[in-house]
Amino acid sequence: MQSVCPYCAVGCGQRVYVKDEKVVQIEGDPDSPISRGRLCPKGSASEQLVNSPGRQTKVLYRAPRAKEWQRLDLSTAVDMIADRFIESRRRTWQQEDDEGRLLRRTMGIASLGGATLDNEENYLIKKLFTAAGAVQTENQARI
Amino acid sequence: MGQLTGPTDPTADAHWEHNHPRKGFFTDTSICIGCKACEVACKEWNHNPQDGNLELLGSSYDNTGSLGASTWRHVAFIEQGQERIAEARESGRALVSLGMPRIGPPAPPSVADLADADTTPPDTADFRWLMSSDVCKHCTHAGCLDVCPTGALFRTEFGTVVVQDDVCNGCGTCVAGCPFGVIERRSNGTVKVAASREEQHAKHADVPNAGVAQKCTLCYDRLVADETPACAKACPTTSIKFGDHDDMVETAKERVATLHGQGMTEARLYGANENDGVGGTGSVFLLLDEPEVYGLPPDPRVPTADLPKMYRRAGMAVAGMAVAAAVAFLGGRE
Amino acid sequence: MANADCIIIQGSNMAECHPVGFQWVAEAKARGAKVIHIDPRFTRTSAVADKHLPIRAGSDVVLLGALINYVIANDLWFKEYVTAYTNAATLVHEDYRDAEDLGGLFSGFDPEKGAYDNSSWAYDEADEGAIGEPAGPEHGAEAGARASGDTFGSGGPPLEHAEVLRDDTLQDPRTVFQIVKRHYARYTPEMVRDMCGISEADFAYLAKTITENSGRDRTTCFAYAVGWTQHSLGAQFIRAAAILQLLLGNVGRPGGGIMALRGHASIQGSTDIPTLFNLLPGYLPMPSAGRHDTLEEYLKANASKNQKGFWADADAYTISLLKAWWGDAATADNDWAYDYLPRLTGAHGTYETVMSMLRDEVEGYFLLGQNPAVGSAHGRMQRLGMSHLKWLVVRDLNMIESATWWKDGPEIESGELRSEDIETEVFFLPAATHVEKAGSFTQTQRLLQWRHQAVAPPGECQSELQFFYELGHLIREKLAGSQDERDRPLLDLTWDYPTDDHGDPDPESVLAEINGRHLTGPDAGKPLSAYTELRADGSTTAGCWIYTGVYAEGINHAANRKPGQEQGPAATEWGWAWPANRRILYNRASADPAGKPWSERKKYIWWDEDQGKWVGEDVPDFPPTLAPGSKPDPSVGGPAALSGDDPFIMQSDGKGWLFAPKGLVDGPLPTHYEAQESPVANRLYPQQQSPARLKYPRKDNLSAPSAGSPGTDVYPYVFTTYRLTEHHTAGGMSRWLPYLSELQPEMFCEVSPELAAERGLEPYGWATIISARSAIEAKVLVTERMTPLTVGDHTVHQIGLPYHWGVGNSAVVSGDAANDLLGVTLDPNVQIQESKVASCDIRPGRRPRGPELLALVAEYQERAGLTVETGNRTVTDPAEGEHPGGPTP
Questions:
Q1: What pLDDT, on the 0 to 100 scale, is given for residue B310?
Q2: Among residues B155, B272, B329, C543, which one has the fewest Cβ atoms lying within 10 Å of its Cβ?
Q3: Whether CATH 2.40.110.10 fits A2-51
Q4: Which CATH number does the domain housing residue B241 bear?
Q5: Quick count: other Cβ atoms within 10 Å of Cβ B112?
Q6: Which residues in chain B are closer than 8 Å to A45, comparing Cβ atoms?
Q7: Is residue B1 part of a domain?
Q8: Interchain contact, C271 vs A135, CB within 8 Å
Q9: With an 8 Å Cβ cutoff, are A40 and B236 in contact?
């Protein structure tokens, strides 16, 4: 399967080898005119990025004032987040500025991230946040 | 058994009945950027465990230290000031004038030519940071293989030297047999576990092939599938080249001649001399200073290299004793 | 880059940070190209360069300015190129005054507001007016309050029209050429010696190498990265290189240009389709209250129909975006739902957001593959800011420090925070890796490459695509039936994407929306092929106009994978580059004004008289049949107004800008100022720091004193932050991986043997580094790769700090975070923080634990006499501190 390295912005081609629905090896793609099959140490470690023992695969929730995580199932978590999104948006809504000019926004919800995400993902994030009036979307490009 | 010393074709010596050319690496340290992609690509392919104790080693950017049971490619980092650079150039120049290592065509510049050559490049001459990716030498006469009592080490059809994990009994004889200190027994527990992640690591605590001798296989399992070894494939700058051994040696000789032509008299080859103590190595290197600087033995000798001489000596001793005995006998007759 | 004859790597450590991209530099070098690395540290890049020049961090404009001066003074500029393709001959308004005349300030500075009114920087006009912005000249307050530079997007700032006054002899003192010449006249090799710490001989070597490798037959390329952007005048560093490259004719040609080496897989994509507050997709600005209250105002402010080039069609791009988002709800009657867009009232960048968290104005925060507790400047401010949130959503692969600061962060250790007091709810949602989802990344040269999905994400891991699609669905479901007008934009949003069996949205359908389609006519429903097909009448959609064409004919061109070995060097059938699959931008400049290649050796795009069109190895970045000698009436506006010799088709006058009459808020020409914190006085001007830098004078954001004023010696050393090959930014994708962690296991600092001796630092022992904000500990790497620089009569010691480590218990390796030392002072054009240079002290031993750490930081602050005013004066008072050289205002 042809892919692209997820680390820096050179965009090296990768080939992902899969066995029994598990990634077993990731190597450079010799067809790529950008990288010609080569990879740096990070790109070479991509398989470990996918299969690393430390990787999280479960949703966790930390309640106010709690000292530890607790388990939460995914759909409950998304539902809770949607509720909080709507509440915070209402509570912090700014319809107009002092001079009566339209603002139509919330400054109560922000996001950071996107430089490691796909264009399609960033597109949906920007679209949803803009429609919700949450203007404070930011990413690594300004860091 | 084939030849124990001097130039030979190790594959033929091992009685492989085919004509696979001998395979090997040429590691050109003059274009290494020290990225360590080779170390990671090697571990990824061979599933070698993490090494070390996760503390700075105290050796510039090198934190894996040396080749070992779990690190089959190792990048050395050496910082040098002006004085040492001048010495390296001088020692390299001396090598050229001695004709060592033997350089094939194109003809190397003579010492007289070098005197006239523009020796200014590289322009930063007062400081340099050498980087070099070391690997098993896959010697023509491999000490590890020669001393292995179980036959776990074998010479492949590609002329390389490989451990059969399931045959090795972990006796460790090979460790002493390698003049480069490459092969080691893998201990278990090489993975250091962060306190709160014990559980996660516990699943992976099984170190593969613990207790048996381990070293670079020159990706034997890739070679049989006609694939390039993982380290050479990943190398971003082609500092690690892979191919037929003869071609690698040829390329290496051309490269050293080019660098000499640019006034870099410090460039020299390592392992390309088939008359050395291991009959030349399957992995050849272009170095920019003396081998010791990179942690390589200057004059590696396979322990078995001296066997013929020892046999000769032993033979002479036997003959001498026979003569003495005869003399004694003859004398006794008097 | 493989075609370059000389490569200058400055502000980048390319071999370490982009090793695989570096193969092209290695290849150019093997062909005989010179490679020069200019950097405070001798790095792995320097190790394989022909020469390394150590430079004092933050002094790059002095060096680049001196190169510009060298090129002009020695008459080495590329005359035919400069005259035809740049704005060298254009006259600037007579009210313009240069920084040379005003002690380091340009005309129009308002010291009260700390911002410029740039109306006097405009081009001169025939009827004695100035060519300003269509909406009239803007004033300082507004200029400073918005995100200026970025809001102009790829088109640069608009000009009312393109009828400029020119003096093709370049002799008029008001020509751009003469202004540039005067501006850099005092940027001399001696000044380079005294400010950058680079000897005159080394400067001569550099200047000679660059100029000998520029011209008709040869080209020089610059490569930079965040070593240039992360400064309080970062945008001007890059502008300075652009001026030099334009003067040498090294733009739009093979082996030329200025390569931005970006650090994240899709950081280019996340700017094109921006998860950034100030932009809409395709570099259209987000509307600002007061400037863009109506669609008409917005369109007028973005681009004038009378200016030259393709940006004049920005109305079509805007309306097609609104149609893509709000479909049938966007009509001519409601101005295409323009009022569904929220409005800006100033800068709302990530650092402003953190400060408003501290004011309890932000309730919810999403972290999407980003670790600000370690990776953003002023880590303490980041973590304390998060502790004020009501809810935090962290989506990542690993349990990063930004998700655990409430239980094991540095403030828990120091006692500033207690878990049981923190009200913030934290949701950790595991994310999918790059092989567990399909989608496109846009790499550093604007190339979109599609990744195919190899396996399903494990456990509860999800892609952002799926998560946000579902979140959007849920929010819309919960709001369904709402009569509240404010919910209309959410409810009217086009949000129907086909899903697979698991309910995952199809990423190709999103790409198709980004590409856009025809809504009416015979082709209704069909994908668009090029952005030139976009219309302002609501008959087309496009989610990001610069990407239009990536899905032409319904084919995903980002997934094009014709092997490189079967194609020419431009490899146009691998992936898809915006715009229009072009690989070198402004490539019309690779031919002379008559359309012939400048030389056989550097042939790329040329005019084929017989075919009557531009041909060559790339997609021409020019109207395909516009003949070289064409001279249309510039007043018609748009692409039709472009002359045959206007290669810079996105600029409003078709020329490369040596002098920027608009678009930058901190000056039309790059000018050297010292960093916010610097032990060295600015020898060029009495003005010490950039007067327009964005300052945040707060008790939690103190600055060290500069330039010998009292207390400078409390923080006597310069530190700079950077990354290593073995890790990735804040470590979220590397410190959890055993194979990478073992290669660089511990936080360290790099110091010279001289500094180690001065402070008694033991090799590989511990040291504590103290800034005006915080103190951290690191192992000591004593190395000759760090060189003390003699700058005037001062020895400047620089300390190197990689920033990959963070404090927490989850990673394979952890350690103190270098970014905790940094403060927040920003470039006013782009709001990027100054993280490449700041002041500190260093001493042997580990840092104190618990409250004693805060006491140590406070003790230093007290000793230096820091107040919120320290270092935060807008205009430098010449009486405070020494300022040798430079005219007084």
A1: 64
A2: B329
A3: no
A4: 3.30.70.20
A5: 9
A6: 40, 44
A7: no
A8: no
A9: yes
